Amino acid sequence: MTMDLFNPFFVKNSTFIQPAYFIISGFIGLPNMKYYYVFLFFVFIVSVLGNVAVMAVICLDHNLRTPKYVAVFNLAFVDLLGSCALVPKVLDIFLFNHYYVPYNDCLTFLFFCYTCLSMQALNLVALCYDRLMAIMFPLHYHVKVTHKIMFSMITFFWLFVITCVLLAIGLLTRLSFCKSVVINSYFCDHGQIYKLACNDNFPNFVISHLLPCLFLWLPLVIICSSYICIGYTLAQVVAAQERAKALRTCTAHLSLVVIYFCPILITFTMGSGIHPNARIINLSLTSVIPPLLNPVIYVLHTQEIRSSIKTILK
């Protein structure tokens, strides 16, 4: 496709070309995919209701105003924000055929998607810290896990994620797009956008590999290391019943870790070896399934929340 065909759609400044919009391609060659987007809509509704319910319970019950539930509340908030940022826009693009996304809207879309996806991983680190302190230092738990420490940790995570994502977006704005503007994904995917550029995109290449290390691999290493320490500590406990009781307090968190990390790490590990359609399905389910299951897991596995819901309903 020649440059002339794109001239009406680009803002040109000498050799720098900024597109007026990007085109989101979505699935390639798969029929009846509208049913999949309808499925995403129902998942979205249930996840919104579930996360709003968890946030409401934590706010209404003064017994849940503990440092641990600061992290749980933040997890529910991030899940809610991520679902609201992603799913309605995806439905608008593919169910109502609005494939053309304005340039600035696409970067905003990218910001919210990547921020929420990264914060989900860091929230799991905050909850892991709570479990680590509770099991390794039970007598000093209330000193090592305070509201101040938890608020400081979560605030730092937010600032760090927002700064990194804004840096990635800032580097995208220096790119010139003189060929295709078709993004082979279901949203404004950073990795797919910078590869369309005509000028030097090496800084974007670097940050596209740095961000997964910071927000996927590093949190996973921290969580795995923490559970190795927890396992070693529990191995020193003589009573098997006490070990089982302590381990049960970790089941909810471990479930969230598996649900979040497994699909997304498979996608990033396989890289270009995975089919584009499989990548879209994997990433889209990774974005919507954890927000759906997180409230369910915490309600089923956490005695405090179950008791609080019973009290509120009464």
From TrEMBL:
InterPro entries: GPCR1_Superfamily_Member (IPR052921), GPCR_Rhodpsn (IPR000276), GPCR_Rhodpsn_7TM (IPR017452), Olfact_rcpt (IPR000725). It is a multi-pass membrane protein. The chain crosses the membrane at residues 35-60, 72-96, 108-129, 149-172, 214-240, 252-274, 280-300. Residues 50-298 form the G-protein coupled receptors family 1 profile domain. One of its GO terms (cellular component) is plasma membrane. Keywords: Membrane, Transducer, Transmembrane, Transmembrane helix. GO terms for molecular function: G protein-coupled receptor activity; odorant binding; olfactory receptor activity. SUPFAM superfamilies: Family A G protein-coupled receptor-like. It is found in: Membrane. It holds the Pfam family 7tm_4. PANTHER family: G_PROTEIN_RECEP_F1_2 DOMAIN-CONTAINING PROTEIN, OLFACTORY RECEPTOR 530-RELATED. This is Olfactory receptor 1-like.
